[in-house]
Amino acid sequence: MSAGAVVMMIVAMVVVWGGLLAAILKLRGHTEEY
């Protein structure tokens, strides 16, 4: 893979996992039951 492809893959992974982690932390912050 080219350097650009590797950079784009890393950026995409950070966005996906960062969003997932943010969602989990946001849900954990809510103590009330749905």
Fraction of residues in H or I helices: over 70%
Helix-strand sequence: H
Beta-strand content estimate: under 5%
Q: Looking at the structure, what is the overall shape?
A: rod-shaped
**Uncertain segments of ≥5 residues (pLDDT<50)?**
none
Beginning-to-end CA distance, first to last residue:
45 Å
* Overall pLDDT: 89
Number of distinct helices = 1
Largest sheet: none
Q: How many beta-strand segments?
A: 0
Q: What is the rounded Rg?
A: 15 Å
Structural class: mainly alpha
Concise structural overview:
This protein has 34 residues and is an all-alpha fold.
Which descriptors would you attach to this protein?
transmembrane helix, mainly alpha, 79% helix, 34 residues, 1 helix, single chain
Helices and strands in order, then pairings?
Layout lengths: L2 H27 L5
